[in-house]
Amino acid sequence: MRHILIASAIVATLAACSNGEKTARYLIDPPAPSERVANRLGTTELKDVSLPDYASGDEVSWQTVDGAVRSNTKELWADAPQRSFTQTLARTISDISGATVIPEPWPLAEPPRRTLEVRVEKALAQADGTYRLSGRYFVGDSGAGGANQARSFDIAVPMGTAEPTPAIIARAQSQAISQLARQIAVLGGPGNSVRTSSSAPRMDDIFSQPLPPLDG
Questions:
Q1: d(CA 203, CA 92)
Q2: Segment Disordered: which positions (predicted)?
Q3: Residues with Cβ < 8 Å from 107, sequence gap 6 or more?
Q4: Distance of CA 30 to the CA centre of its chain
Q5: How far apart are CA 10 and CA 131, in angstroms?
């Protein structure tokens, strides 16, 4: 009888732990763009967005008043954060500008004119009641005379409370990504622009050249 009771308790514990209804999952879902800007990116391949460790995990993270970054195993993102951030950013840039921005790997036969790399340094619901998204982005243009961009961003979205719920954090992050998309679309933010001095040779051009004669 004792063994039966122990087994029943273990089964009940496992059932409670596996109860999906006790785990909440949150989406990154920016609002539809309310404006359109000029298409300055054309065809662009977006590399996987680089996120801090605390922002790339499954759990929704936030900062408490003691400065610590905390999370809850029952409050999760609905999708892998890096994938979701990358896909959402590409779609929002495209929607707001009409550019063709697609996450890597590039699926079209015609290669992209530009590449976009975003390196996030902070993506956190801070203890001061704001969601902070900061880092740098880089636009590479291989065409002769193309403008290569190296620019920074620092976006703060008020959450209205110093103790936000995961739903509030998800909404603030979505708004921050929307603001970042607009900044990248217009190539805005502090930084520099460097012109490409000459076109890099294409791989098919390299291999189409005749080989030099062998010595001797």
A1: 32
A2: 188-216
A3: none
A4: 12
A5: 41
CA distance 47 to 54: 20
Q: What is the pLDDT of residue 118?
A: 98
Max Cα distance, the chain (Å) = 92
- Per-residue pLDDT tens over the stretch 26-61: 999 988 888 999 999 999 999 999 999 999 999 999
Domains of the chain in start order, with CATH, are 2-200 (3.40.50.10610)
Mean pLDDT of 121-150: 93
Cβ-based neighbour number of residue 174 at 10 Å? 19
| Token pair 């403008």: residue | 147
Nearest to 122 by CA among 93, 149, 90, 154: 154
Least trusted range by pLDDT, from 72-76, 108-112, 140-144: 140-144
